[in-house]
């Protein structure tokens, strides 16, 4: 692994939700954080909160040329030790109402962007002595869910990418793992509760309770809990772990 005094992490979708929590957690642990997101304003707010270790980089990960340029910017400053592919979007609609454009957009953000980041950064990690790739998936990476065919397909693909790259880089000291959260207190969760309220007439609290009840623990996961798992997978304690899928879902998948 690289020198502890120069450890760097790249986080996509860094300005809110899980990505924000991950960025702040790594900054507190002494990492320099390349924080990638579309909103310059949100990234500036993150930088103010996280301090000088936050390196904002405004980029739409669905834009291939912009993403490749961002990778060059990162590598020009030094090889990152950790990559957290967190950026993700969803489309909630029946199959017949999911357009090809919807599918393409979801796949671009959820699959193609992580693929490109891995392709551009992993060889440098290997040459530098090693690194860690942590993909943020979903419980839908291992199970089906109605009205989310595009999203579910993308997370299954991300799981496949994780497994393939973990094997390819297993002897190059670069581990690749995936974290599969259940419902997390994020904007995506807020959107789901709003949709339930709109379609069923339930209150927001009732909608929250319905989603929480899907897990054995009956609770919503917090972004900081996902961040804690990412820190573990980046630690020396996780050195022999690769190709693994960690469910953080309160027992929902069980």
CATH H-level name... which superfamily?
A: NAD(P)-binding Rossmann-like Domain
What is the overall shape?
globular
The SS-based structural class is alpha/beta
- Reported CATH architecture: 3-Layer(aba) Sandwich
What is the CATH topology classification name? Rossmann fold
Main beta-sheet annotation: 7 strands, parallel
DSSP helix fraction: 40-55%
Number of domains: 1
What is the straight-line distance between the termini? 35 Å
Query: Given this structure, which CATH class is correct?
Result: Alpha Beta
Arrangement of strands in the largest sheet: 3-2-1-4-5-6-7
Order of helices and strands: EHEHEHEHEHEHHHE
Poorly predicted parts: 1-5
Number of helices in the DSSP assignment: 8
What gyration radius follows from the Cα positions, in whole Å?
18 Å
Number of strands: 7
User: Averaging pLDDT over every residue, what do you get?
Assistant: 93
Portion in beta strands? 5-15%
Family: Belongs to the short-chain dehydrogenases/reductases (SDR) family.
Organism: Corallococcus coralloides (strain ATCC 25202 / DSM 2259 / NBRC 100086 / M2) (Myxococcus coralloides)
InterPro entries: KR_dom (IPR057326), NAD(P)-bd_dom_sf (IPR036291), Sc_DH/Rdtase_CS (IPR020904), SDR (IPR050259), SDR_fam (IPR002347)
Protein name: NAD-dependent epimerase/dehydratase
């Amino acid at each position: 692994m690289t020198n502890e005094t120069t450890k760097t992490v790249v986080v996509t979708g860094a300005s809110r939700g899980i990505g924000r929590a991950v960025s702040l957690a790594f900054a507190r642990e002494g990492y320099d954080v390349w924080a990638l997101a579309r909103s310059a304003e949100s990234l500036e707010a993150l930088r103010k909160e996280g301090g000088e270790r936050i390196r904002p980089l405004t980029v739409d990960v669905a834009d291939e040329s912009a993403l490749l340029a961002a990778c060059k910017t990162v590598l020009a400053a030094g090889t990152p030790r950790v990559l957290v592919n967190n950026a993700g979007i969803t489309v909630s609609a029946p199959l017949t109402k999911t357009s090809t454009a919807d599918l393409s957009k979801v796949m671009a953000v959820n699959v193609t962007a992580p693929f490109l980041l891995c392709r551009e950064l992993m060889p440098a990690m290997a040459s530098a002595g090693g690194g860690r790739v942590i993909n943020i998936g979903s419980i839908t990476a291992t199970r089906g869910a109605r009205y989310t065919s595009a999203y579910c397909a993308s997370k299954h693909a991300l799981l496949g990418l994780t497994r393939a790259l973990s094997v390819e880089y297993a002897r190059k000291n670069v581990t690749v793992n995936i974290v599969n959260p259940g419902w997390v207190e994020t904007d995506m969760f807020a959107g789901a509760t709003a949709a339930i309220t709109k379609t069923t007439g339930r209150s927001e609290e009732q909608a929250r309770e319905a989603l929480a009840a899907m897990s054995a623990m009956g609770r919503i996961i917090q972004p900081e809990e996902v961040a804690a798992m990412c820190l573990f997978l980046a630690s020396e304690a996780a050195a022999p772990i690769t190709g693994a899928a960690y469910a953080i879902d309160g027992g929902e998948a069980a």
